[in-house]
Amino acid sequence: MTKNPRNYPDTMTSAESGRPMTRGAKERTITVDGKKFTYRQPGWWCSLTDPTDNEGQLVDEDNQIARMARLTAKSLSRGESVFVPVVIRAIRMLLGLTQREAGLLFGTGEKSFEKYEGGEILPSEPTKRLLKLAMIHPEIFAKSQGGSFLIPTPNDAELARETLRKMDGARIYDRLFERQAAVTSVEAH
Known about the structure:
The protein has helices spanning 60-77, 85-95, 99-106, 112-117, 125-136, 154-166, 170-188, and strands at residues 11-13, 20-32, 35-45, 56-57. By secondary structure, the chain is of the alpha+beta class. The chain has a four-stranded antiparallel β-sheet, covered by helices on one side.
């Protein structure tokens, strides 16, 4: 048995035929781009087991699941196997971000997460790597208690300098940091 949103009754009568319907999840198959995808659709169904009996009733929460199933199938048919719309939405919600905030934080644009979650576009490979990092270490993408994004700290700047020093081209960048340090010390006085 699936979650029963808003404590709806377990049974009801079909307005269409007068047959009894039971609340539960029924396997449904949809076809997208010539490919078949099966998922479990919650709702009230006259038959939970007969795949040919499609008489049932869905509420808003059930329709959202049907919509996400179609969007997921669309992404799967286009070759995406992990970062389908429902996963991207889950990552964004885990981070506590709006779609706009996620787009700005990930550097993909204000409307990008709306398009990812709507199945309009697939995220780029660099964005997928950031999404994976967000799943593993959501704290990196956290907002501060005041609601703003965390900005780099002086310790982050020192880590960046140390990283540049370790690379072969560090001699090129050392002077940049010397100038930055001089500018910072002048501004401090």
